[in-house]
Fold these 2 entries.
Entry 1:
Amino acid sequence: MSHLSDIKLKVWRQAGPDESGRFESYLIASISDEASFLEMLDVLNEQLIHEGREAVVFDHDCREGICGTCSLMIDGQAHGPQRGTATCQLHMRKFQSGAEIVIEPWRSTAFPIIKDLMVDRSAFDRIVEAGGFITAETGGAPDANLIPVPKPVADASMDAAACIGCGACVAACPNGAANLFTAAKVAHLSLLPQGQPERFKRVEAMVETMDEYFGSCTNHGECEAACPKEISIDVIALMNQDYRKSKFSNRKTLAR
Amino acid sequence: MSTVTAAASTGQLQSKAPNVAVPEMWETFKSDMKLVNPNNKRKFKVIVVGTGLAGASAAATLAELGYQVDAFTFHDSPRRAHSIAAQGGINGAKNYKGDGDSVHRLFYDTIKGGDFRARESNVHRLAQVSVDIIDQMVAQGVPFAREYGGLLDNRSFGGAQVSRTFYARGQTGQQLLLGAYQQMARQVGLGNVRLWNRTELVDTVTIDGRCAGIVTRDLVTGEIISHAAHAVVLCTGGYGNVFFLSTNAMNCNVTAAWRAHRAGAYFANPCYTQIHPTCIPQADDTQSKLTLMSESLRNDGRVWVPMKIDDERSPADIPEAERDYILERLYPSFGNLAPRDISSRAAKRSVDSGRGVGPLKNGVYLDFSASIARLGYDTVWERYSNLFEMYERITGENPTKVPMRIYPASHYTMGGLWVDYELMTTIPGLYAAGEANFSDHGANRLGASALMQGLSDGYFVLPYTIGNYLAPLLNKPVPGVDHPGFKAAETAARQRYQGYLDVKGTRSPDWFHRELGKIIWDYCGMERTEQGLEKALSELPALYAEFQKDLRVTGNGESTNQTLEKAGRVDDFFQLGMVMCRDALERNESCGGHFRAEYQDDEGEAMRDDENFAHVAAWEWTGDPMQSIRNVEPLEFTTAHLATRSYK
């Protein structure tokens, strides 16, 4: 175990949604290279409380890269420099002593800032509420092995279902589009046999709700590069294909 | 001399399970329970606190049935609940493998795994509905692992000799939670569930002997308001973060359960905590949490330590003959899949004897090289890729090349709010489900059973049992939020949070939490002694007094203030910690996760005392955690017969 010294932080501070924000500079004199990035912020907050100042507000929870609560633009990159890694799994061994690190919240109109580095991502919930489900009310399900799902189908569905809903795709997108998030859910459900009955209704409702809150996709591909779960933008093609079909297909012939 | 007064044992609690043979109980209950007509369900409001597996599945199902549901989460979205982090799988007695599984066998394994300290009636029901859970989750679109023919795949977990665990790579909890979340989101979209995010429960309100609702704090504005309902369900998880370092998420806390406890709900078996054997060892002093590596890894990983004390060689240089495969040697019939409590103690003893590995000598190896040689790299990689990647991100080491290092950590709490067969606490109208209650895992939980229990309670138990309580309340008025009972609770909550801001001491809530955690881990962790627990019970009140006069919370109470949130949670952890140590001290036996060094056999195995302790200890609040009253629910075993738990 070794230590990094003199880490200079420039952190976005903003007292509330309608307040103007600014960068503040802090110094971390020494930190273990085994510490995670968020543990470094814990150290900063302990320091601030010790000095009688208000701690930096940031969202975080599981610190295992699965809950999707953490965010942060680190030096302009969503979730920082390590590919396929959420901020909570980024470790200080990826940085050098003396480094200056700029920390900002997700920047997107659809994700208003609540305070400091914390943003409101509830627009994602609205997209799921509009159609990101399979209607199967409790109690009436048939035996689980009644519908065989070919392994490649289950695997592809799982690849898309790995999305943690963190919002890095939106934060990285120059247009603030949520196509990767939405398409991942569309693909997860629409690839499965259980998802077929609502396939077109779902994609239509989800895409149209997405468009109410988020910008439009112009295939930059920044989302895929920022995604901590490395979800492929192929799902966006699948969503677009299904959305187009949803406008033409006759729902009454879905079972054919 | 003992510094702690013995707790008085008073009244006996009754589970109210139907008076028939255990396997008949659930059918009997369902046949006899009162029903609420579909058109009348909308006249009842049910509050569900917490949106993990138990909360989301309960909220979705109750809304589908027609009840008005208000769901609360302190997260920004219901999908963040910590159920999401469960890795390995979910048990279901489907017997798809034809290897001899059955409802009875899952029931028996769970009772035995819990070291005969769980309630038979609840566990049998859990095993019965386990099969329905798998059906329900597949219908929701959970992408469980499949065989090439398209049928569901299974794997094996600790404490079982059959393969009954369904899984979705190493992300089973995530996929199940998203299934339940999506089902609830549909009800939110339909207007049947009202969702309150970033809202924390700060009190429960009891009026005229029944739970009348809750008081919440808006984590964005600090506003404290009341919510009235006909029934309240707490699905607020466990209290493993009392240890400070645990595998729980940072925000997991005992506050909801503890506020209910203070309002009159008994808290059962707080000393039953699970220390999970396969976590990544602590690396430094700034560490904020520990990361679990799924138990499923023990299907293909072998646990070993060097035979020599203080062996400095790298693992590759230690020849086969100088390695001690501890679990295979001690427990040949279960081997590396011995249950969690037993595996944890074996690892602790190896480290304590100076045979620990890694830079801080605080771990044991979990080695995949034999499996890679037998099955090929690709097969092993496919099974555990996400876990291997997670391990490498945290430690900088690749576990397919260098053996993983693991060590036990606090992971799950079997204790929780006491509930009867209908999952109702000792406050009428207040229910507890999932990890927040105590009922199904006894003194030790088996792997892949937490997901099963959360979904069982939420999907298949509560939606029935709540109707039984609500039916007689039809068209009877219930107190609204302007009732003085609510107003008094709101005032108390405002004073409580303002109080933390007003102390203006010198130490942060995290500092106190860390110190609290050290005491609990040292004296009420993997191994407990009378002397140690008494020491903890003399140190805890002193530290708590310091907390009350030297706490420093910066910022204000009118906007997001995570320091203030933490202060409230640490306060409740202190009180819980005291009751937890008292519970451990009173239970003069070893069982499951509760290992008292005084009660072990010649080979170091736990010695239960069925004559004196075959009961649930349910603590009653008196206003002082050092003076809580210990009540008892006797446990009877009519279907799974009391036996010494052996995995040899």
Note: Chain B touches chain A through 85 residues (CB under 8 Å).
Entry 2:
Amino acid sequence: MYIDPAAGSLILQVFIAGVLAATASVKSARDSVLRVLRGLFRSRKDK
Amino acid sequence: MIAERVRGSFRDPSGFVFTSDGTLYRQVNRSFADEYDACVSSGLYDDLIARGLLVAHRDVGVGFAAGPDAHTVIEPTPVPFISYPYEWSFGQLRDAALLTLDVQQRALDRGFVLRDASAYNVQHVDGRPLFIDTLSFERHKDGDPWAAYKQFCEHFLVPLALMSARDVRCGRLQREWLDGIPLDLGSALLPRGSWLRPGMLLHVHLHARAMRRYESASVAEVTGGRRIGKQAMLRLVASLRDAVRGLDWRPAGTAWARYASDHDYSDQAMDAKRRLVREYVAAVAPRTVWDLGGNTGTFSRVAREVADSVVCFDADPAAVELNYREVRERKETGLLPLQMDLMNPSPGNGWAHEERLSLESRGPTDLVMALALVHHLAIANNVPLRTLADWLARLGGSLLIEFVPKSDAQVERLLTNRADIFPDYTPEGFERAFDAAWTIEATQRIDDSQRTLYLMRRRDG
């Protein structure tokens, strides 16, 4: 089927792409911090 | 070979669907040759077909063309019964949405994208959604947004959100808005709490506002030339998937959803009815059966023991949903539950009344079953028995029908608060009314009940 893409919808996607990329970055950073903290906790426990 | 173009197949310049000698074909036009060939050579079709996501097809060559400018013609595997989103239960629409996103993701993985995301590109076959529009794919131009994003939201996300968060009956709005429920309407009808759900906020509410604000804007100017990479596109698909998965609906509370376990039959009567239905269906040996008012599909399953394809129609969304869930859980094949109000069955709809077929024009079927249904149409809705007999004769060649007399508790309940204006609603009146269109081939009282089962054959059939 041929459809007419609406301008507002295309523009919103650019905005959403930014939001989702930012969210992914925050999640990735959070996961890294959690990994480091878990590592520290484990090494202290091992001592 | 006389080819007849399917009337609803006119929007896409890349090809069209036609029938010839009872077989369905799809012509691929030369204007789409590069995209089609690229899709074939990429292995995308093979991958999707192997996974049971896309309808299988065979290339029969340009010799089968039904119009000018043909590149080739394909013959898709037939779908036993074409159904429409406004006839699906919540779960059927949700599964169709997830299938569309799955197909989009796999297409992106191979460098393609869905050109459209219409719910009409999906059919339900053997308890699973199946993508049927083979020409929906084109090569993905890196950086381009998804042209079908709005269509996906209007065809799937908005109706599902309304059915889940507002009222499951909102699904019927799809019959009015064939190209999806408009975003602004969906946004206005959804409860305020939906603004707090990220999926609804982004894909429905902000989407509706963006549509209004940038109605005639230039995309390049507003976005400053920013593009959407493949990863961003995949994240968009994942976000839509999360939004769809976050929507749920529990089928409960309606009288019909409880009917299978909360009816007036004794165990003996139920067993006798099941035995009789099995016997009568076997006598007809139908290939296709339509079970009208089939509730959660108890007798559809009996018919399926004989028939290849059974469609179970019911007006109650909870009954249809429960039936669909059972089909999925038990991996049943050849049984399709659909929502249909027989007092207002699906009409011919869309452009020239021909884009979406009426229930009647999707027939006839070999056998119509109308069990415990007549009193609802004749007494609760005043349909004259003669009119009912004529309409059923337009649907199928054989009829398995149950007459429920006025002395039955169900009919007594219907007449509790209204005048009995149905003097002809008697076994004799029923037989008289059906005599013009049908021949009674067999009849038997159901043991331990006052109800009678009739097997009839259409007079001109």
Note: Chain B touches chain A at residues 11-14, 115-116, 118, 121, 133, 136, 145-151, 202-203, 206-207, 210-219, 222-223, 226-229, 232-233, 235-236, 239 (CB under 8 Å).
